[in-house]
Write a structure and sequence with these properties.
This protein is α+β, with helices and mostly antiparallel strands. The protein has a single domain, classed as Alpha-Beta Plaits (2-Layer Sandwich). Helices cover about 20% and strands about 20% of the residues. It is built from two helices and four strands, in the order βαββαβ. The strands form two sheets. A two-stranded antiparallel ribbon has the order 1-4. A hairpin with a 5-residue loop joins β2 (about 25-30) and β3. The model has no long low-confidence stretch (mean pLDDT about 90). Bound molecules: iron/sulfur cluster. Iron/sulfur cluster (SF4) binds near residues 57 and 58. Keywords: 3Fe-4S, Electron transport, Iron, Iron-sulfur, Metal-binding, Transport. This is Ferredoxin.
Length: about 80
């Protein structure tokens, strides 16, 4: 069983809130608009987190340790 981990590079966050729209249980925004991680996703919420990773315009988010994780960019 893998531990799920969300990596956030806040320096790149532009505060648009796409992640909050698709996964409001997991992502929030501070007063400055910068993303915050509220908690780790349950298994049924992983898909929404994965969608947030894809939609994020700043490539701020990364999901690690989730089953069926794919890394198309190869690092
Ligand atoms: S979608 Fe990306 S850039 Fe936009 S608020 Fe979320 S983490 Fe920041």
């Amino acid at each position: 069983m893998n531990a799920i981990e969300i990596e956030v590079d806040t320096d790149r966050c532009v505060g648009g809130g796409q992640c909050v729209i698709v996964a409001p249980e997991i992502f929030g925004q501070g007063d400055d608009g910068i993303v915050t991680v509220l908690r780790l996703p349950r298994p049924d919420e992983v898909a929404a987190v994965r969608e947030a990773v894809v939609l994020c315009p700043g490539a701020v988010l990364a999901l690690h340790g989730a089953d069926e994780e794919s890394a198309p960019d190869g690092g």
